[in-house]
Design goal:
single chain, TolA/TonB C-terminal domain, three-stranded antiparallel sheet, 6 helices, elongated, disordered N terminus
Length: 177
């Protein structure tokens, strides 16, 4: 008697199914489906998460990505943290609708700065962002994007990874107002 793994592998071969009669094939196909689902369930958690996200993201990718219209960024550096020269990065998950507006109820913190005041300032400022909406075949479409917000103090030391950011660049840096 063969081990179950070998038996399933043989039953799963296209050659074996082709040699079966049409009436017995319908009995084997559910077994193959069940075996495939079991194999997927036994894979690591990260892989199953990626598969789930791929199915959820079934919408087409836009031909044109959204373009930000703001000339000045609306992020306000919290005064208490600015005074202490606290810096941080916040990554937001923003839902941009067909009109180019950020949907307030769908804004989420994807990656926290570690400071709730910086995170809150990023979320609050994001509601003032305006975009030319993404387009698919010329038609506006809603999209979800990741949007980084960098809070930097001009007199503080650079954070790890800041070598890729140009000091003095204000495109995604919070301001103290």
């Amino acid at each position: 008697m063969r081990a179950p793994r070998t038996w399933v592998r043989e039953l799963g071969s296209a050659d074996y199914i082709d040699r079966m009669s049409p009436t017995s094939t319908w009995r084997i196909r559910p077994l193959l489906l069940l075996a495939s689902c079991a194999a997927l369930a036994c894979s690591d958690h990260e892989t199953s998460q990626k598969v789930a996200q791929a199915f959820q993201a079934g919408a087409s990718a836009p031909d044109e990505v959204p373009k930000m219209l703001n000339t000045e960024l609306p992020f306000r550096y919290p005064a208490a943290l600015y005074a202490r020269k606290v810096q941080g990065n916040v990554t937001l998950r923003l839902r941009i609708d067909r009109d180019g507006q950020v949907s307030a109820d769908s804004t989420r913190i994807e990656e926290s700065s570690g400071y709730s005041a910086l995170d809150s300032a990023a979320v609050k400022g994001s509601q003032e962002l305006h975009f030319i909406p993404a387009k698919l075949r010329g038609e506006p479409m809603p999209v979800t994007i990741l949007f980084p917000v960098y809070f930097r103090h001009p007199d503080a030391h650079a954070l790890p990874g800041d070598t890729i950011l140009k000091r003095g660049e204000t495109t995604t840096t919070g301001t103290n107002r």
